[in-house]
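Researcher: Next entry in the queue.
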Amino acid sequence: MSALASSLLAWLLTYLIHSTVLLGVAWLVTQRRRLEPATSDLLWKVALLASLVTGTIQSRLELATPAAVRLPVATLPQTAPLNQPPAPVSDPANPSGQSPATVRDATGGSVSRAPSLPLVVVLLWGAIALGSSLYYVARRLILVGRLADRRLVSDGPLAATLAELQRTTGYRRRVHLTMARTISSPVALGLSEICVPELALSELGAEQQRSMLAHELAHLARRDSLWLAGASLIERCFFFQPLNRLARRELETTAEYLSDEWATRKTGSPVALAKCLATVAEWIQASPLGVPVAGLAERRSLLVSRIARLLDARLPSSPASRRGWAAAAALGVVATIAAAPRVSQGVAAVTTSGTTATPTQRAAEPVVVRQPAARGSSQDTTVVLALIARLKDENAGVRGAAARSLGHLGDPRAVLPLINVLADSDGEVRTAAVEALADLADPRAIGSIAGLLRDPVADVKRNALGALSHFDQAVPTAPVVALLDDPDADVRHEAIDLLVHLHARPAAGAIARLIHDPSPDVRRSVVEALGNLGAQSGAAAITDALSDAHPDVRQAALGALNDLKAPIAEATLVNLMKDPAADVRQRAAELAGERSVIAAIPQLRHLIDDPRGDVREAATQALGHIADPAARQALQAALQSPDPKVRRAAAEALGQDR
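Model: Structure for this entry, 658 residues:
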């Protein structure tokens, strides 16, 4: 829990730094330059959202930022050396010699019961953020309650005007038009509803009604309700960043300006919208709804500037200019990821006394030169415990490196922590943990490693199969057999090899079904496995493999049939001595000699002149194994071969008594 709290606190502090940079730059740019609302809207949205992800991206990419900050963490205890006597008991009422605030852990170290500072800070943040968010949700529910009596407007002049606006603007999504007497200003609710006050029907003219509906339709098209709700939740969850409130208010402002622009472009009547704003302002006595919503006149302080802007009829900037600012914003985010400092969880310090050593104590400690421990022996507790602590590091690369190092050290205390890491969310970390457990070869890990045979990541399954090959007993074969149908060829290959290692002869039938596998490596592994398992039932499948398209499979099939002492048709053997692959011709010639196949003598005589030297030598030796006059005649002819190895093999064969 403390490690998780430290990681979360580090992320929150990184967010505070990055959000200050991004939101601060957005504020400076929008204040110092007279930007169009569309550009300001873009910059504030990018700054608000990018702050949430830049720190995580830095951590995932393992970037070494110029000014990275590392949080201190609690000191890990170390067991006393075996030759060190226990501390004398000085307090009869406290025989352990420890203060009431400490207890002994399983290794004999002293561990504090007091909660860590990061945990306290994170819990406090969570409580405040949850309370503030619930308050916002409650205010939204109050708003919904106040609008409970609104009625649907499906006909009449307002509905007709809205339908005409949707046709002319090309807005295709369905919009619900409602009317309520409890509001004073039109508002856009969610993604598909416009709610107007009853006064809009009697106090506004037709052109003003059209401008009002166009403005609210713009809010729906821009999804301003979602943006404002999201900004409000970010403001409350990350209450410690005051710039979030500024960003939310700026988004409210730009939403109104941009909706005014959209409505003016679609209706062509800025004066009508200005008159509508002035009329609606007279209805509003105070901000009636209590939460940020996309409404025509929810912020009265903006009305004067909005009306002046409409009457000024100033056109917005070109799309090309906005694209330039978008590129600049993207570069700013990249620069933040590359250069902004981040806070990360620190590495636990370990002391022999269970307490944090002061600088003076460290300076006074004698320097001890440690001899490297033999592999598999009990390692230095300081290193082992520090690496075990890093198995919960926020960075996946650190967790993986810690797992691999624990495997190399071979300390049995790492087995259970590594088993827990097998459930890590990162596939490479799970792979590293499997490899480490394979190095440790502790039977306690068999069940957990076998559980990874159902992992979605192929590399994890393959490494789990390899790790199980370190054990000779207690390995379940059923999940291994199931992997014979895995879509990854390497996994199928590893599964076959493991079944052979486990001498799982009952699995021979399942293995034989892969004799026509798309992968030649798998087919060769199938043939070799059936031969090594002594599975006579697989002889037919191996015989089929003699005609396989891949030469390695054909060669392996010859060897497997020989291991099984299974019959091979003489015609098949003769044909294989004509195989395009030299290794296949050589193996077929050897089997023809071992089995004294008289029908193979003519082809063996032909192979004495084969382009490959090892084939020529194998054919000569095979003729020496066949007790037939035709074979001796072929050997006599081989004495004239230009290859000295052939002449020597022929001479030796002719001297044998057959």
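Model: The chain has a mean pLDDT of 82.
Researcher: Noted, moving on.
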